[in-house]
From TrEMBL, chains A, B:
The record marks 276 as: Essential for prephenate dehydratase activity. Residues 15-107 form the Chorismate mutase domain. Residues 295-372 form the ACT domain. It is found in: Cytoplasm. It catalyses: prephenate + H(+) = 3-phenylpyruvate + CO2 + H2O; chorismate = prephenate. This is Bifunctional chorismate mutase/prephenate dehydratase. Residues 107-283 form the Prephenate dehydratase domain. It comes from Methylophaga lonarensis MPL. Residues 21-55 form a coiled coil.
Amino acid sequence: MHLWLSLNVSTVEHMSEQKALQHIRQQIDEIDQQIQQLLNQRAEFAQKVAEVKIASGEQVDFYRPEREAMILRKVMERNTGPLPDAEVGRIFREIMSACLAAEKPLQVAYLGPEGSFTQAAALKHFGGSVQLQPVSTIANVFRAVETEYARYGVVPVENSSEGMVSHTLDRFISSPLKINGEVTLRIHHYLLGKTSQLNQIKTVYAHPQALAQCRQWLGDQLPHAELVALDSNSEAARRVAEMGDDVAAIAASTAADIYGLEVIASNIEDEAGNTTRFLVIGTQDVGPSGEDKTALLVSTQNKPGALQSLLKPLADSGISMSRIESRPSRKGMWEYVFFIDIDGHSQSPAVAEALAKLQNEASVFRVLGSYPKAVL
Amino acid sequence: MHLWLSLNVSTVEHMSEQKALQHIRQQIDEIDQQIQQLLNQRAEFAQKVAEVKIASGEQVDFYRPEREAMILRKVMERNTGPLPDAEVGRIFREIMSACLAAEKPLQVAYLGPEGSFTQAAALKHFGGSVQLQPVSTIANVFRAVETEYARYGVVPVENSSEGMVSHTLDRFISSPLKINGEVTLRIHHYLLGKTSQLNQIKTVYAHPQALAQCRQWLGDQLPHAELVALDSNSEAARRVAEMGDDVAAIAASTAADIYGLEVIASNIEDEAGNTTRFLVIGTQDVGPSGEDKTALLVSTQNKPGALQSLLKPLADSGISMSRIESRPSRKGMWEYVFFIDIDGHSQSPAVAEALAKLQNEASVFRVLGSYPKAVL
């Protein structure tokens, strides 16, 4: 296809080592030049997209979550290696981030401080060229986007060590913001204590989810230790800091620093896929990407069987419900609102039809957003 | 050069918006396919480099700091835009990181916890494909590399808010490890307090360097506030947490979380280039990259003028000394060791000659390492 490819990798086999390395490095340099040229051409085309959009006079969203998700999926699907799919996806995330910044720098607020998992999630979703601003509370992330101080916000919504982040869900009850995306992030668990001697540990404190996620490791390494469930892993670390050498906490490695504890063991979670989920909040109506989720906020009248009949349209249409979470509505003593995640985009005919039926049953009904499933 | 380029960006100007966007996106998709193909070809060549090196039977270093620095500089020098040089550099950092991981995953220990600035420095230097391990102390980062638990380590060495990190320098006195690279990271300062009202603040606590770095901002915004110097910015934040509404601290945004303070103002540093410096430590002898630094550890006899005559060979050869730092040697009451950074590589004739003369004057002389100057 390209001229330089005629110098095949196999031709180096009969050369001296120095000459072979020099030859391969020349090839790599030529590849790099081509990649660099293509990157800049891509940025030119991205700027052209911006110009066409601006010329149309409509309100312009340079960042299109559904389009980025489609590109990333395509890249990963057609990948032949030797680079792993995820690595190529990560490189393209950075390429898109840089090209987007060349159109217009994107302002994103996140739950700080700098170094927080939410910052890592924001970087994973938007790439390194985004302009990030740490904000001190979840409510302030919402406010930053509502007041157009930032175009998007990133907040945690499910935390594998602390459970649901109810602040985030509650904010949607009063905020007009929509969900424009999701990010999942792998979280590691650490065993922390005042000693580095694993065999001294008689009691382990942690949130029940963390205990569950490390059950196998605990069973292998500390078969006789007592496991005590607490409200959060941070609470566990705080307690252990006030106790003796024979107790330990499961927590993030940050907690070791904050509470002055030693890391006894790292990455003790049984499943490699232990993840925390974050939401990208914004004001955009995100189009279908082919693999989407829709988040609903609904409420029923307080009578027996109301929830069942509310959910019936979904079941009847075979629409998969990935989670349901109830929260007090704060309006009446016994009224609840439900946060429901379903598979599919609200613009798809099957989902739209089921949602219309569901809306008839509900006393409150809002689509919080349809957005692409996390790709990376 | 390539066929698709005949469809120039200017041809879209007379199309309808939808058709124009579709056309441009097709071009972008074709560019993406070419980039992806080139990325995988690059990874194949990188694997071939590994095979040639392994076949030679010598001890193999797949990661070559000087070569990566040369590639990054070349990429940034030949860049024509519209992507900024630094953005293209960042993308190539990730490409090299992914290709290297396809040869052999690189293990790097850093001063944790996860989310620390040192982690950010390690990612900036090695790219996102590296396998990072947080370690609790600077001494343990050295130990991790000395015991070959990790191939490299990353430790802070100059911190713009806390001054020199003397632990790091002191470790070189007893450790056989070398300096294999440097990383600089931009650090932001935040004004933290119990109020969000700037006009209430009467006193500001911080490390003297932080006060100096924010002097102009403080003069503009808090002309009547008293500025109090403390040992560290963390200490300032801790104190402010125990005091009233009319005091504030300058610190990193992490401190707001740890001490429960509000962010009153963000990025208050006067200079955009406020940076912290980190060292990459390892066992490698890094070759010349064209723009290098050399770190020396020297000691003199304790007599008048000894330091002056020690440094004379450098001055005579016109070799630029970028810093000198003295530390007690811990061997005698009045003995000091000096950490000296000079421009140039120890293998370059001019530097080698000056170092030979310097060695004659010194009672202790060690080259801690020659390494490429930070590129990104």
